[in-house]
Design goal:
This protein has one domain (10-91). Helices cover 15% and strands 38% of the residues. It has helices at residues 16-23, 67-73, and strands at 10-15, 25-32, 39-46, 53-58, 77-82, 87-91. The chain has a 6-stranded mixed β-sheet. The longest helix has 8 residues, at 16-23.
């Protein structure tokens, strides 16, 4: 994702807390891509009713955070949905839409 004033590729965004309320319990884990064998850390949100899971990658600008760091920074973090359908965790303001009161 390009860093800059444009939001190319971003379809939607939520505060981290709002996303967790909508998608379920947040966990951080270490995973292996079954196709490439590449290991990576990711966030996963699990809906307690349906057991549906949503993976949210750490943005390259943010880097991997520990659960304690995420909890401490939760007010400054957001989840963005990319046009690809993937989700990414990043800092608010870096690539976020700003409401304009007209």
């Amino acid at each position: 994702m390009a860093n800059g004033a444009t939001n190319v590729g971003i379809k939607n965004s939520w505060s981290l807390v709002a996303f967790a309320k909508a998608k379920g319990k947040m966990q951080v884990g270490h995973f292996t891509n079954k196709e490439t064998g590449e290991e990576f850390d990711s966030c996963i949100f699990t809906n307690p009713v349906t057991s549906d899971r949503v993976f949210v990658a750490f943005s390259s600008n943010l880097g991997v955070l520990t659960p304690a760091q995420i909890a401490a920074e939760k007010a400054n973090l957001q989840v963005v949905e990319l046009e690809s359908g993937n989700y990414s965790l990043c800092r608010m303001g870096a690539n976020s839409w700003v409401d304009v009161e007209l």
